[in-house]
Amino acid sequence: MITNLDISLTIVMPVYNEQDNVVFAVEQTISEFKNFKKAELIVIDDGSNDKTKEKLLELKEKYKDLIIERHTKNQGLGKSLQDGFLKASNEYIIFNSADLPLNPKDIKDLFEKNFPYDMLILERQKYSGASLYRKFVSVCNRILIHIFYPLALIDVADVNFTIVFKKSILKNIFPTSKSPGFILAEMILRAKYLKYDVKTVTIKYYARKFGNTVIGGLKDILSSFFNILYFRIYSIFIVRNK
Question: Is there a domain that residue 157 lies in?
Fold first, then answer.
């Protein structure tokens, strides 16, 4: 077990048109920074065209641990995560969405009970609040990934919620995928192929209260399928040469 004096943490939070959520999300997240030796919140504004930008600028005036990066046009969740991960400066990195599906209050408990590990995979106890279409797409994506990677993910059910990992391994698990349906799965697979210390834990999932998610459209489905197939071919060479 580790204490709050032992680690530093970066939380990466991509946002796109999250004017109804962003203030609460930032304030709730930063309120938990007192539990860590050092912490920062990196918000990637992925070309929002509502009032998200203005609200973030106001928040920046209040919080020194808030870092804001902005895309001039929408580039998708994958690119936002890649940029946020590369910007991170602390020992551990975690991804959370602006609707806070992972309650910031639960993060300290995750570290106290589970670390040290190279990567911690968080699985949702229950995927509540999503539309039937989103649930259907999510289940199909999960099944497809497990068909292509049955042995590597035999002990992992949910690869699309979030992960916590050491910054020191980022260069070796950095994803080429940008599709929201496979970017985290690729990072998990890379960590497993390279035999890092990976653990899976189940955690409570909190459904979105305000606004709508833009993930799960036809473009996301097709790009996820392409990335799953491409990495399967690529991973053969990783396994053979590891």
Answer: yes
